[in-house]
Amino acid sequence: MNFIKKIIPMKDFTLKSLMTFEKTPLNLLMFFITVGLLGAFGWGVVEYLMHSHHAYNVTREHPWGLLIAMYIFFVVSSTGLCIVGSLGDVFGFKDYMAMSKRAIFGSIVTILAGFAVIAFEIGHPVTMLIYNVLSPGLTSAIWWMGTLYGLYLTFMIIEFIFLMRNDMKNARIFGLTGLLVGLAAHSNLGGVFGFLNARIISNGVFYPTYFILTAFITGIYLIYLMYGFRYKMQIPDDIKKGLLGLAKIQALLLAILMFFETWKFLTAIYGGMPGRADTAEHILHSGAFLYGEVLCGMVIPFVIMLATKWQSIKLYVFTSFIGMIGIFFMRYDLVHDTQLKPLQMMKTVEYQLPPEWVEYFPSAAEIAIGFGGIGIFFMLYYFGQKMFDLEGGAH
Amino acid sequence: MARYGMALDYKNCINCKACEVACKEENGVELGAEKHRIWVGGNNPEGQWPLLDIASAAFLPSQCQHCDDAPCEEVCPTHATYYDENGVVRVNADKCILCSYCMNACPYDARYVDDRTMTVDKCTFCSDTRLARGETTTACQNTCPTKVRTFGDLDDPESEISELLRTREHFSLKSHLGTNPKLFYLT
Ligand code: SF4
Ligand code: SF4
Question: B108 CB under 6 A from ligand 1?
Fold first, then answer.
């Protein structure tokens, strides 16, 4: 322990202090939610170990499901928090200095939660670790994404150590490197979809850039939630200024996102290319897109921020909750919509009439593991708060 | 080394599905409609009874196209998918991590998950079975009663498939995607 403390300053804690917390209704609620989610995760993993991919509802036509969406949800959150954390310690914006530690810590635990989820989606994670090195597929976006995220996590941890040691010079160097690697990894994740020639709805440059934009948006929603919970809405002044500033940035980012989305659909539908136009129209009629993505993820938060002139932190915390629901749907829809269109060739019939659109709904095990990842995030974040002093930031 | 391909005289197909059965038997493919390396699709006849357009009701056998520029190979993170020395696109089950990226990337719906190994499988032109034993035909070709399929070396000008491709009009599927399939449909 002392050895670790020499590397990274920690608070004094005992097993008992780790397990005890103030029994306020909110804390208790969080406790039960976390335990419930962790239980679900455990059950899902057992289900998976017993039945492997048969525990999931993924099929030949729809090989990627909820777990991929949740993995993306977590890594987008991580990149977002990394961007927010970098505002202070990398770019030197004074108003955001006080947030760096918490944001960077958040970016580490969200990506760990993401890795925990993806470990049960990839059929053979150990094989992956071996052959990613022995026979790397350098033309594969998944290879780059995985490798860069591994590096990114390493840099984030080093940056966090320097932050905790108040060594701002080194924190800045590793922060900047981590940020750049993270952005590369993240746009590669967009490239995983962008490279799919077979799925014209996803093909192209849209996703690699869109991922960075929505990451920043997600990071801001999350930092609101983290501080809202930390200070039970009584936010201290040094944080307040930064949070109010972030609201302005958020409104701007949301405006850009809506602009992006509008053009995506205009270009997809214009010209009527089969596989693109019809899929886009189908998406425009789906509730998950309209209510989840557009309303919760973009319109409601944007309108609230505009209407309150960037002055109401309490409201933004609640808004961010709605926003994160929207972000979840953004990830889910991205994965599902990519696979919506059956890859029919010349045939129209095969054994039975193929459905016009490929259906998918996650199985109980997928839901348990996917949302259980949130439990892992809560647990790691809770322990982190107890072990590290996340207050104050760069000076 | 050869560059194997297949020509399909698909209008001769009578939908007997003997090729599907032979493929499963030869290569140990599991039973079930979801698990298949090759399949016979179809089109219902167009028009209203009694004015049906019989010619439109074709049966369409298909499988992995053994693309020369295979998207599945490009996206595989561990090089589990590779071109063998005969240009056949193969999957090394020991390296496959079941990320399913290739299933999403293949424009021809040609891959499935083998439940026993939990890795991705697909048509290999019988490379592990018949070709490995020194035979020169695939199981589907060998069993087809109407001689829909002709398998052979595209680089050998004397081969039957080269002769067919020289003398008959043909097309390949989704050619606009630039995957350069080595499966040719004869018209
Ligand atoms: S048809 Fe599909 S599986 Fe076969 S080589 Fe082409 S992309 Fe790969
Ligand atoms: S599922 Fe297997 S063969 Fe397909 S891309 Fe992933 S590792 Fe390669």
Answer: yes
With respect to residue A286, please indicate whether it lies within any of the assigned structural domains: yes
Nearest CA to ligand 2 atom 2: B96
Is pLDDT of A327 > 80? yes
Distance between the two ends of chain A, CA-based, in angstroms? Answer: 27
Q: At what angle do helices A237-269 and A313-338 cross, to 10 degrees?
A: 30
Which ligand is the nearest neighbour of the Cα of A343?
1
Q: Rounded to whole angstroms, how far apart are CA atoms A230 and A224?
A: 10
In a domain, A27, yes or no: no
The total of structural domains in chain A comes to: 1
Phi, psi (degrees; rounded to nearest 5) at B27: -105, 5
Q: Probe ligand 2: pick from B74, B79, B91, max atoms within 8 Å of CB?
A: B91
B110 lines ligand 1 (CB under 6 A): yes
Residue of B nearest to A65 (CA): B100
Task: Judge whether A26 lies within some domain.
Answer: no
Query: Which structural domain, as residue segments, surrounds residue A197?
Result: 32-344+357-387
DSSP bridge pairs for B43: none
Q: How far is residue B88 from each of residues A394, B5, B61, B119, measured CA to CA in Å? A: 57, 8, 19, 18
B98/A349 CB distance under 8 A: no
Q: B60 and A346 in contact by Cβ < 8 A? A: yes
- Is domain B4-70+122-186 classified as CATH 2.70.70.10? no
Query: Mind listing the pLDDT tens digit for each residue in B63-105?
Result: 999 999 999 999 999 999 999 999 999 999 999 999 999 999 9
Please indicate, yes or no, if residue A202 is contained in any of the structural domains: yes
Report how many Cβ contacts below 8 Å link chain A to chain B.
135
pLDDT band at A352 (very low <50, low <70, confident <90, very high): very low
Mean pLDDT of A210-217: 96
Element (H, E) at B42: strand B38-42
We report the CATH number of the domain holding residue A298 as 1.20.1630.10
The whole-model pTM stands at 0.93
* Cross-chain residue pair A60–B101, CB shorter than 8 Å: no
The contacts of residue B157 (CB under 8 Å, 6+ apart) are: none
Domain boundaries, chain B: 4-70+122-186
Closest residue by Cα to atom 8, ligand 1, is B72
